[in-house]
Amino acid sequence: RTRILDAALDLFAKHGVSATPLQMVAVAIGVTKAAVYHQFPAKDQIVLAVTERELSRLLPALEQAEAHGDGVQARDELLVLVIDMAVQDRRLASALQFDPVMINLLGEHEPFQRFMARLYGVLLGDSGEDARVEAAMLAGAIGSAVMNPLVADIDDDTLRARLTDLGRRLLGLPEKGRLSR
Fold this sequence. Notes:
Largest sheet: none
Strand content: under 5%
Helix content: over 70%
Distance between the termini: 41 Å
Structural class: mainly alpha
C-alpha cells in the first residue's frame, strides 16, 4: 500500500490524476495492475488514501492546538507545520490546489471537509463565511507559493521562513520571537 501511495503521489503531481491510469502506478512499482486493484479497487480510493496519509501528519499538531483553545502559540505552531509540509512536499500542495479531479473528489469527501474545517477553524479562530474565505486565501497562497516558478530557485529554508512570516501577518499572529510562551 505504501509503495502504491508513494508512486501515485509522484505520478499525480507529475501528470495529474486523470492522466495517471492504475496501469502506470503498477508499472512504476513493478507490480501488475491486478495487484494495485487488490489494494485499491478504484483510483478515487488511491486519491483519498494519499490525501489522508499526508494530512494525517498534521493531526497531532491540530489536536494539540485544539486543546489549547485560542492560544496564539498553538495557532502559530500549526501554521508553521502546515507551511513546513507544503514546502517539504510541494507535489501534494500542487495536486491539492490545482488538479481538478482531486479538487472535485475532495470537495465531496466529508472526512476531508471536516478535517479542513477543523484546521482552518484553529488557524483563523472562526468558521464563519469570512473565515472560510480567509482560509481559502491562505491555502491558495501557501499552495501557489511553494510551486510557483518564481520561487523554484529559492531554497526550502528561505522559502519556509518567508512563507511563515507572511502567514503570520495574514493571520494577525505576532512576529517570531514575540509569541507569548
